[in-house]
Structure formats: structure tokens, C-alpha cells
Amino acid sequence: MDPRIVRDLTRLLGPEAVLAAPDECLVYECDMLTHYKGAPDVVAFPTTTEQVAAVVRLCLAEGLPVIPRGSGTGLIGGAMAPRGGVLLALNRMNRLLEVDLPNRLAVVEPGLINLWLTRAVEGRGYLFAPDPSSQMVSTIGGNAATNAGGAHCLKYGITVNHVLGLEVVTGEGEVVWLGGKVQERIGYDLTGVMVGSEGTLGVITKLVVRLLHAAEAVETALATFPEIEEAAAAVSAIIARGIVPAALELMDEPILRAVEAGIKAGYPADAKAVLLVELDGPRAEVEAQAEAVAAICRAHGALSLRVARDEAERALLWKGRKEAAGAFGRITHNYVLQDAVVPRSRLAQIMREIGAIAARHGLLVANVFHAGDGNLHPLICYDERVAGEFERALEASEAILRACIAMGGTVTGEHGVGMDKASSLPLLFSAGDLEAMARVRRVFDPRGLMNPAKIFPAAGACREVGQGGGRPVPEGLWV
Amino acid sequence: MTALETALRGIVGSEHLLSEPATTTWSVDGRSPRWVAAPGTEEEVSRLLALAAAERLAVIPVGGRTKLGWGNPPRGVDLVIDLRRLDRLVEYEPGDLTVTLEAGVRLGALARVLERHGQFVPLDPPLASRATVGGVIATNASGPWRHRYGTVRDLLLGVTVVGADGTVTKGGGRVVKNVTGYDVPKLHVGALGSLGIVTAATLRVHPRPAAEATWVFGMPSPEAALEAALRLLDSPLLLQRLELVDGPTLTRLGVGCPHPAGLAVGIGSVPEAVRAQGEAVHAVCREGGGVALGLAGTGAAAFWAGVSDATLPEEPERSLTLRVGLLGTDLAKGFRLLESAAHERGLALAATATLGVGTLRARLAGEGLADERLVVRLREAVAGLGGALVVEHAPAALKPRLDVWGDVGPAFGVMRRLKAEFDPLGLLNPGRFVGRL
Q1: Residues on chain B touching A421 (C-beta within 8 angstroms)
Q2: Do A344 and B176 touch (CB under 8 A)?
Q3: Residue of A471, B22, B58, B399 with fewest CB within 10 Å of its CB?
């Protein structure tokens, strides 16, 4: 890195806001999918929109990549710098700028931790609905950049449904507001396109987000099943009955064992599958739906059904779910994580298919996922010390992805594309479809300097189709 | 017959092509198209657009023609593409809560299919039964259901689009959760067909609540109605619809309303929850000075359709219809602005507002609407509240003197580049979208 550029950045941001020593930059070389590595040349910590714009303009002038980053909890090889450049760590832009409860909105900076927003308004009965499992550490800017999901998006929608407006610095160095506090929009829905663009169109510097009033009643219940297919069929039946729970989460036996061994959530040890159902809404509605859900579970052979009696028990049931993937690290050496989706009526079928793929590859595949959305997170276990197992795990991961797509599903449900799934996009999209996305890219970022090497398959990378998607992940992540 | 017309006939078949003078009933802002083509397949749409690009024809896609007055007057009107023959249901699996259908399917027809399975697509724009799926996507038109369910933006999972050069592409997918690349479907929502023609879409569907109820309250003032609405919103009540309707309009809808404003509330849930929440709604509205009014014998469905249609330009040359976006808390102020403008000019006002969203719809009817200063002054006042005003319909004498959209601000630079990327020749609805793109 040219020392002149470091000097310029230091002049723009101050000495406390620039890291340029290689060992310091190394901290930022990956997100939570550590397979992909690429340290930035410089890490900058802006505190204002003007500083972000100044850094972006400097990078444009110098031809340097710009990589926005929040807490780095992504699982896709996203907030990292395979081509070097300047990483914008937005963590110091973490203010809650405004809360307007009568209009049920908040204005925040991108580095604000997701859960902090809910903590700030829950005393007055409100919440920020997107709740990725990482919400205690991930930032709202990162949630918007990746269009994060979460357990409760089954009922409340994903992040894009909760973003009303964005202030962004585009890849042209412009500062523009897309959308805003007033919901009625004029012109193209650029907010909707910016959300989920993974930093490849620009840097989000402020967000107007929707707040929801908390429900009158919440009921969290846990049903155990003798077979994963039965539990999956129960999920499909609940949805088909017209009940849309706030969350509908499924975990299979290997996951249950890991959770019990790890954090002792109180899951019964004899069950082969656990279904976590959360209903919320008006009390009378929750009560009526809870009865219907219980009847559906019994009809599908549920072994037991337990309703959380208080907030502490509810929190414990959820803790097991939210930290399941992390806890799973205890019982396998390594695993590959998938994030695929099937139509909800196909859940039992895909569970059988995943079981068959696991058997065919001689590997253990565990499942913990957002069943109500059909959003799967199979964890494909292997031992890196055994020759050939990693390769087999990748093959199994790929086979699962293809099975999902064959059922009408998609490549990534909530984690995003990043580097990890770029080569899988052609499984779903034609060259023409991808060209439409590339046009959007050119509109915002004609130089291709905003978070380069993400989302779009590299030129000539089509031959890699068949290997992309799903790399080993470390312990302690959230899915 | 010209070679071009022969080519058009070759694509859609002679029985599906109109040429002048038979096209006069298809005029857009008073201009008759040279041809109206009604393609029956996505491939025919693709061939039409490829031909239009080669021949530099200005293209106007249409569906149910319920919102054809939206947008600025087009720069050219060569070829109207009538998409109503694309009316197939492609895939509907009730257990998935999704439906894939062609763009020409009418919302009314879709509703009849879904209701057999206890489901619905919660879209209730004006003239909802005639409006097509493609038209609702292109306009992002909404109605009272927006309070609970959002607009088509929140329901659209995937699209098939024919681009300006005839290329067919897909965006999004058929499942409810999908972050595979950019959310291309969003580009086409509310874009008035200016970036491509949507020929098919996958929508999220919702289960229809087991029980629904509607209550209407006469309120002493729009301020009191807003106050009561804000109290309802600041509670765990789960409302399906929450509309402010002016008193005379309520009376016209068959709900005798001697009050200046009314509050219409809809709730859908299980019967017990509808009952319990209904009591809470009554309590809040009574405390706000409201009086419960009887719904007309025609029932709730007809009432709500009437609310959706309440501000349509019934007499086009004597009507100006507006959509005003504001913060929800400013809606009473917005209502008063319209009221005093109407009073000053001796116009009749009909207004409805989706209170939880901040959308105010109004019709000003009477003589003397040719003067653009009315719109200019209202727009300035609305901008002063941080809002925006869109003219949805204006008399022919007034329309060319307005920009119906108003200024979109600094993001316009990005929008102009987007249009240039997707429609470099400027042939799709030329001049009709924001900034006369």
C-alpha cells in the first residue's frame, strides 16, 4: 500500500481511525466463513457519512476496492478483501439517531447492533423484527446489506420488508437518500435493490427502519417427533392449515445431542426431531392456534409437546436453537454448512433426499433450520484428518443444493452469495438473468470497486459450478 | 398494409392486431396508437419488443387499463401491447402459500381460485377485480389492505421480464426466502413498465382469516380520527385495515355519516380474537368522540371495494386525483390542506387515507381545474411536511402542464442511469415515468 494513501486517509479520518499495519489488517481477512481469506491493505473507521464519502472518492481516484463491514458475522466470504483495498469498518457509526414511535420508525447508523435497537424500544412495547441468530452482535447495516433473515421472518418478513429508506454512498461517490421516512415512494425502488446487494452497489450510511408493536401474547412450544420426516410433514400441515406462526424451527437428532451436550436447553434426549413453534398475536388468536398446532403435531405422531411456562423457559428453548450450529462444533471435527430453500410443501421429501445423500456419501448430515420458510441449513460433517472426506462433504453439499433447486428452490435463502456461492448462481440464473444484475451493478458502481469479487461469478468460472457453495465453517457461528 | 404491420400480424396473428382507425378507443393521454397487439405468449411479447426496438417504436404495455391515466403524457404511442391474453395460472400449490401466474391474470380471477383454498393475495387497488397482476406490479397500486400486508412489493417473489430488446430474463424465484443475487423483481415494482414488461410473476399468498369484521365510526374531526387511529396503532391490536374516510364519501358508500370524518377499521383473525379486539377498538373510538355507524346492507366486501374506488375520477374532465405520501402523524394536516384548497376553489373533495402507512388519496372535482397552480401550491405545502404528491389523474387541459410525479430529488441521477441501462433507446413508456424518463 502506497504510504501516501495511508497519509491521505489519516488526514481525512484522524490517526485513531486508520489501521495499516499488516498484522492489524489481518484481523479483517475473513468473515465467519474462514475458508475465504483476503486481508485489506487498510482498515478505516469512519464516523460520519462525509468521511465515508471522502474515503470512497479517494478509493475511486486511486482505483482501490472499498469493502464495507459491520461485525463480520456473515457466512459467505462477504465482508473481506480478496483484492485488498480499503475496508470500511462501520462499527463506530453506531448511533440510534431517532426513534419516532407514533410513526413506528427509527433512524439508525449502520454500525448499530441489531438487538440494541429492540432493547431501546422494547420498554415502550416495540421491536425491530428482523432477528438473525447473530442479532446480539450483528449490525443493522450488515443485516440490510445481506437482507438478513431470521427465525421470525416467517411471519414478519425479511430485512427488506423493514427498511423504509437508506442513505448511501454509491460507487460513483454520490451521497443519496433512497426512500425515507415517508413510505409512499416515487420512482424506482432503489431501496429494495440496495438491500441485499452485499456492499457491491455502495455503502449504507444511515437507515430508516420500521418498528413493530410487540404482540399481545406469545406462546413458545416444543414438540418432539420419532422421525424428522414426520416433523417436516407437521410443518407443512401447519402452514397448509393457514396458520403462520411467528417462527417454526426444526432440529434433528444430531443437533439435539449437540445442544444438550453443550448448553443444556432441556430438550428430551430420546427424540429424533424437535419442532420449535412460536405463535404470537392477539391472545385469543394465539390460544386458538396453539390448540390447532398441538392437534396437528399429535396427528403426525408427536412424542411430546411442551409449552414454555415463562419467559425464562422460552429464552432457554430459543437459546438452544440460536446457538445450535455453534454447539454442533463440539461433536464433529469439521462441517460444511448449506443455506438452501425448498417450497414448504416439499419439506418431508427433501429430508428423505438429504438422508439418502448423506448415506451415499458416508457422512453425517445434521439439520437445523427455518422449517416454516423451507429454508434449510444442513451441516455436512467430516473429519479433515481423513483423506478425501472434505471432498466428499463438498460433493454432498452440492448434491443437496441441486436437489433443492430441482424441487423449485433456490441457492441461498438468507446468508447471501459473497464469494462462497458466486459460482452457484448459474444453477439458478441464465447468463441473461445475470446480465440484468450486472446492469444494476454498472448503474451504481461502474468501476466495479465496491466489494469486488462477490456475488458475480468470475469470468470463466462456470467450470467451477459443481464445487461452489458450502465451505467448512468454524465453531460458534449463528445460522 | 406496410411491411411493419405484416410483421406485427405475423407475430400475434391478424385477429390479435388492431390498426388505425380501430385503435382510437385505446388512446393514451388522447393519442391513439398506430397498433394494438395482444400477444398470447411470452415469446410473442419478446418478438414484439425485438421488432419494436429494431423499428424504434414507442411501446405502451397495458393490462386492465384501470390506471392508464398514471404517468406523464408519453412522447410517443406507436404500439400498445395488451397483455390480457397472458392469463394463465402457471403453478399454485396451496401448501407453499405461493402462486405463479402470468401478468394478464386479473386480481378478481385470481381471488376466485385462491378462495377455494381459504387463501388470498391481499391486493385491493382501485378497480381491483379488473386490474391485472402485471398492472399492479407496474404501478405498485395499493388499497386499505396495505396496512397489514404491504404492497405488491412485499408479496413479489419472482418475475419473468421481457427487456426492451426482447430478451427474456428471470429474477428472484418461487420460494418465500431467497437472497440469491440482487432483488431484481423490486426494480419493476412501481416502474410503470419503463424497464421491461413483466410477463409472469410469483406472489406470496396469505391464508384468509377465519373471521373478519368491519366497523365504521363517525368522528368529530379528521384530527380526532387520526388521534384515535394513533392510539389503535400504539397497541398490540392487529388490524387488517385502518382508513380515514371523509364524511360525505362515507354517506355515498351507504354508511350514513353526519360527521366530517369517519374511521373504518377491519380485523381478521379467529372469531374469539375478532370479538375481543373489536371491543377494544370500540372503546378507543368512543373515547375519541366517535360514534359507531351501521354498515350498509351490501356488506363489508362491497364497502371496502367502495373505499378503494372512492377517489377515482368519475368525470375525467372535471376530476383531479392525487396520491399524497406523508408521515402518518401528518395525515390530518394533509387532509386539511386538501380541504382548504377545495373550499377556496369551490371543488368537491373525496378523500381516504391509509393511516398506518401515510397514504392520502383524494379527488377534487368541479370546474376550473385547468390551472396548474392548485397542484403546485399543494405540492409545496406537502413538501413542507416532508411528503410528496403524485397526480394520478388530471383533465386533458391540465396534464401537459404538470409533472405528475414531482421532483424525486438527488436519487434521480441513479434512476436516469438505470433507465439508460435497461432501455437505452427509450422506447418503453417513453416520457411517462419520473423525470420524464
Answers
A1: 180
A2: yes
A3: B22
| Candidate from A157, A197, A432 with C-beta closest to B167 | A432
A283 contacts B173? CB cut-off 8 A: no
Written out in words, the top-level CATH class of the domain with range A94-213 is: alpha beta
- Percent of chain A with pLDDT strictly greater than 70: 96
pLDDT in tens, A127-137: 999 999 899 99
- Is the CB of B418 less than 8 angstroms away from the CB of A186? no
B49 closest CA partner among B356, B432, B387, B428? B428
Question: What dihedral do alpha carbons B413, B417, B418, B424 form, nearest 10°?
Answer: 140
First to last CA, chain A: 36
The grid coordinates listed for A384 are: 479433515
Query: Which residues in chain B are closer than 8 Å to A288, comparing Cβ atoms?
Result: 270, 272-273
Question: pLDDT (tens digit, 9 = 90+) per residue, B288-326?
Answer: 999 999 886 779 999 999 999 999 999 999 999 999 999
Q: How many interface pairs between A and B have CB atoms less than 8 angstroms apart?
A: 270
- CB distance B181–A429 less than 8 Å? yes
Chain A residue with Cα closest to B229: A102
Nearest to A417 among B181, B189, B329 (CB): B181
Domains annotated on chain B, with CATH = 3-84 (3.30.43.10), 87-207 (3.30.465.10), 211-309 (3.30.70.2190), 316-406 (3.30.70.2740)
Q: Which CATH number describes the domain made up of A215-331?
A: 3.30.70.2190
Of the candidate CATH numbers 3.30.530.20, 3.40.50.10420, 3.30.70.2740, 3.30.2010.10, the domain formed by A332-452+461-479 belongs to: 3.30.70.2740
> In this predicted model, what pLDDT tens digit does every residue of B328-380 receive, in sequence order?
999 999 999 999 999 999 999 999 999 999 999 999 999 989 899 999 999 99
Of all residues in chain B, the one with the smallest CA distance to A239 is B95
Q: What is the ipTM of this complex?
A: 0.96
Which of B291, B259, B378, B307 has the alpha carbon at shortest distance from B147?
B307
> Which residues of chain A does CATH 3.30.43.10 include?
3-91
Chain A residues whose beta carbon lies within 8 Å of the beta carbon of residue B406:
186
The angle formed by the CA atoms of residues A268, A271 and A275, to the nearest 5 degrees, is 85
Beta strand A105-108 pairing with A96-100: antiparallel
Topology, domain A3-91? 3.30.43
